[in-house]
Design brief:
By secondary structure, this protein is an all-beta fold. It has a single domain, classed as YVTN repeat-like/Quinoprotein amine dehydrogenase (Methylamine Dehydrogenase, Chain H, 7 Propeller). The protein is about 0% helix and about 50% strand. It has no helices and 31 strands. Strands 3-28-27-26-25 form a five-stranded mixed β-sheet, with no helix packed on it. The protein has a four-stranded antiparallel β-sheet with strand order 4-31-30-29, with no helix packed on it. Strands 5-6-7-8 form a four-stranded antiparallel β-sheet, with no helix packed on it. The chain is globular and about 45 Å long.
Length: about 325
């Protein structure tokens, strides 16, 4: 069925509401790993060497998990730390956006040495959220207080820009070509950053006030967005400047995290149904994988071939789904 958005000149969007509640196939497995009590793991980053890094937001630490043994190690990041995002950089090290320290932090994966890059004093509190490395080699980041910016990891210089519509910048990603996009939760828009000037182009999804929370690129450079308030998953195609949106299957859907795997399958975490949700763009169908623990609250997902990882902030666990 096709529905026309109520906004003037809004593009058509197809609404898919097909849902399968599944029993996992032999090639698939959902497994949880306990982390220290009070960790409240927020973001997770599986590294190529097998280590899974996570931000222990509740304890002000960066954690690492060895999935083979279940052993965890937590590295304190400093007094007042409340780490939010973590990604693996081109140097193989975890890079952290720390809202408590108001700083970008990196940790040497071998020595566990902590290096901190504070935000400029004049900018004040930024409520740092997430980061991604752009094609310019710089680390781009968002702050929900109303900023986005970049860190030159060679010089340590930080540049901060005020975001359009003020509060809200949250999820951020890089496309295969190195372009940087972020989404604003409070501002309900997708932003494309000009890496040369730092200026941002505001791109509005068809649904108003949808609460764009996280964003991820597929292999073709399309941007996939979880719409927290709109109960939708959206796709923006830069080459044609067009949108598509699909309504999430659960009536009480609250799509939070989003990740696109190596097969261009879109994955979301749904707070409403407490599940991982798989969306196949080719068939426009959803498949739901209920999480083992009630109230898991997976706020971010990342993967590596054959694995999808999430931090279960509500129950102090990490979870992995093996994928075909």
């Amino acid at each position: 069925m096709n529905f026309r958005n109520s906004r003037p000149n809004a593009p058509l969007r197809t609404v898919a509401v097909i849902l399968f509640w599944v029993t996992l196939l032999p090639s698939q497995e959902l497994r949880e790993f306990d982390v220290p009590p009070g960790s409240r793991p927020h973001d997770v980053a599986p590294a190529p060497d097998g280590t899974v890094w996570y931000t222990a937001q509740g304890l002000g630490a960066l954690g690492s998990l060895d999935p083979a043994t279940g052993k965890t190690v937590q590295i304190p990041l400093g007094e007042g730390s409340r780490p939010h995002g973590v990604i693996i950089g081109p140097d193989g090290a975890p890079w952290i956006t720390d809202g408590g320290l108001n700083a970008i932090v990196t940790v040497d994966p071998r020595t566990h040495k902590v290096t901190t890059f504070p935000m400029p004093a004049y900018i004040g509190y930024t409520n740092l959220n997430t980061s991604a490395f752009g094609g310019d080699g710089q680390l781009w980041f968002t702050g929900q207080s109303g900023i986005y910016g970049s860190l030159n990891i060679s010089t340590g210089d930080i540049t901060v820009h005020k975001a359009p519509r003020k509060r809200g910048p949250y999820g951020i990603c890089a496309t295969p070509s190195g372009d940087i996009y972020y989404v604003s939760l409070a501002g309900s828009y997708l932003g494309r950053v000009d890496l040369a000037t730092g200026a941002v182009e505001v791109i509005d999804p068809p649904t108003l006030s949808q609460g764009a929370r996280r964003v991820w690129s597929d292999s073709k450079g399309n941007l996939w967005i979880s719409e927290w308030k709109g109960k939708r998953v959206a796709r923006y195609t830069p080459s044609t400047r067009t949108w598509r949106e699909w309504i999430m299957p659960a009536d009480n859907a609250k799509p939070y995290a989003i990740y696109v795997d190596e097969q261009d399958i879109v994955w979301l975490s749904d707070f409403g149904s407490n599940s991982f949700v798989r969306f196949d763009p080719a068939t426009e169908t959803f498949t739901s994988y209920p999480l083992p623990s009630k109230g898991a609250a997976v706020r971010q997902m990342l993967g590596r071939p054959g694995e999808l990882w999430g931090g279960e902030s509500g129950v102090d666990k990490l979870v992995v789904l093996t994928t075909p």
